[in-house]
Amino acid sequence: MCLSIPARIESIEGGMAVCSVGQSTYNTSLDLISEEDLKVGDYLLIHTGFALQKLDTEEANSILATFEEFKKLNDNLDKEELKQNKRIV
Amino acid sequence: MKYIDEYRNKDIVKYFANQIKTISNQPIRLMEVCGGHTMSIQKFGLPHLLPENVELISGPGCPVCVTGREYVDRAIAYSRLEDVIITTYGDLIKVPGSSSSLEREKADGADIRIIYSILDAMLIAKKNKSKRVVFLGIGFETTAPASAAGIIKAQTASLTNFFVFSAHKVMPPAMESLIDEGVQLDGYIGPGHVSTITGKGIYENIPKKFNMGVVISGFEPVDLMQSIHMLVKQKENNEAKVEIQYSRVVKPDGNKVAQDMLDEVFEPRDDWWRGLGVLKDSGLKIKRKYHKFDAEEMIKVEVEELKEPKGCICGLILRGEKKPKDCKLFGKACTPSDPVGACMVSSEGSCHAYYLYNR
Amino acid sequence: MTKNNDKIILGHGSGGKLSHDLINNLFIKHFSNSILSQQSDSAIVDINNSRIAFTTDSFVVDPIFFPGGNIGNIAVAGTINDLAVSGAIPKYLSCGFIIEEGMPFKQLEEIVISMAQDAKKAGVPIVTGDTKVVDKGKCDKVFINTSGIGDLEERNVHISLGDNILPGDKIIINGSIGDHGMAIMAARNELNINTHIESDCAPLNDLIADALSVSDNIRFMRDATRGGLGTVISELVAGSDYGIEVNQDKLTVHDNVRGLCEILGFDPLYVANEGKVVMVVASEDADNVIESMKKSPYGEEASIIGEVSYDHPGMAWLNTSVGGKRVIEMLSGQQLPRIC
Known about the structure:
Shape of chain B: globular
CATH superfamily of the largest domain in chain B: HypD, alpha/beta domain 2
Strand content of chain C: 25-35%
Radius of gyration of chain C: 19 Å
Number of domains of chain B: 2
Shape of chain C: globular
Strand content of chain B: 15-25%
Number of strands of chain B: 11
CATH class of the largest domain in chain C: Alpha Beta
Number of strands of chain C: 15
Helix content of chain C: 25-40%
Largest sheet of chain C: 7 strands, mixed
Helix content of chain B: 25-40%
CATH architecture of the largest domain in chain B: 3-Layer(aba) Sandwich
Number of helices of chain B: 16
Largest sheet of chain B: 5 strands, parallel
CATH superfamily of the largest domain in chain C: PurM-like C-terminal domain
Structural class of chain B: alpha/beta
Oligomer: heterotrimer
Distance between the termini of chain C: 24 Å
CATH architecture of the largest domain in chain C: Alpha-Beta Complex
Structural class of chain C: alpha+beta
């Protein structure tokens, strides 16, 4: 079965959106979500020709930012461990 | 690709792998119930990154795997009618019925078409007015809304030659039944896209009744590793709750528009699951209101007698009680090109994923 | 052999396990001879003490026109490549047409003109052919068979057999994977998508000749057509006393190909290519071979993607881009509809 992936809205018309993944565009039905606050540039999760949900990009970006923090923490810990030659955490 | 690549970051995966190793002190058995999760875990080789005490088991989240032989036999019976066009998602065509499969029927001349969306099936119905088009509706709460939307559209368009044969099922009864049946688990990696539709409320019973956590996970390696980390943390802290890791698309209340559409078109019924037997209110039946689009109501056929093959332990594998390599038929009589049971057919099935990625 | 062996199914033609079974258990079993049993891309035959590489291929792709080419282009490139990857210099082609009644002349003409252009550019003339026309519905617009012969030097005979492969050897591919198969998927227009994926269809005889001129230690070559790179790797390693490791980080997959693969759940590793050769090269020569490939328009993205190892003989492992590992297994049945 097809998977669902995030696709960017390129245009909206008549209950359908043209969404892009990479450089390909897909016609997607908006029957399953509320069209109200959708706009070009938003991301949709698409599955078997339908949009299932709008991606919460604010949430995504803030979590990704914490990942960057984790990474830094990880790197620092690795360095410390190498120095002290033992597990810290 | 945006919002995909970031979750395939090697360093972040490594970070979570380290965290899991660090905090995990006791054996822990986690089950993923979604076929997409099984595929992702195997495809990215995640088991190699986990410490020995963390065990991942694949559960019954592959819609093709849990679909009974009887459904396939009936679909085959439909396909043998002169004026019927069968439209189906890809993997169903290889699933063995009692004596044939849709793939074999296709080779015999039946009009069976693989499509990617119910909307394609409806287009075929519009273009072939003299034929009856039957859409094989498999899948869980992720895919059922699309079938609902399709049926509503068909109603609006007054299509008289379009039918849905529903094998749609819902997750929570299966997740609860497994524990009731005694499968030993410490936590569920919760289905990501099902939850996008349903929200997290449907799982609340599990921590309450069984004292184990559910973490609703995304599908990328970072998502899965983070979810496993969250479940390990719950266990180490003696907690049991429903958490959402996949917060970028799963909201606590889910997708109300899709839920309403499901309620409009479908109603619960008892349904048979391979490996679990009949589970109360675990299937979706098309409501009386839309019976004109229900293949089971509208198209009468003779279905052959059900025959199950000897030696196939798909049921036990789907329950997580056995692993693919425990099956006598695995890799010998049962391979992806020559499947005996449904677990080997679907690319999301435990045996198939195991065969491809883990021998 | 499959239990359901009273009917041929599409999977038998897709290049994976079912095809293998059919070839072994039917064709090789009855046509039985030592040359055929080698199952190389090209047969190597001896005529009057001259070694000749001889190959044939049929092309039934649907649609017959797709971004990046048409059925004629792959008919010419496919056979040239089968010869070239055996280490032979492609010399002459034949081509047979089976044409469906009602096919527009203009389409046939366009196909033939592009075949002529490709053959000329590659320096491999089409010297004989055949034409048949069948009733409407008896074939799908046009089917093309091309056969080819090439001149094989003694020093290159080992290439198609792969007998000289050693642990430490490097695995090289001349560019991105998955383009052709996904271009075909997209062109079928059933999917309501708009995408600009072009087939990578290309004759590789010059690129391969250049590589052979900079290295005497090319151990093995194969073109990664149906079944993709994954099939080449898994076939190569099957039953051998060495293992293979491929690094996913080193594989090039164009974004548009990746996007469509993600949407459909396909693995680019197993998607067909029509302009890609996989080589096993002694490690000391690998960089030179890459450099020579990059000079060709068909090798700009050439890279070392893995190596042969002492570990896990008979198995190929993929080191995934996130640090995990998984086995590269042979594809069974179809991942795609017909593509060539």
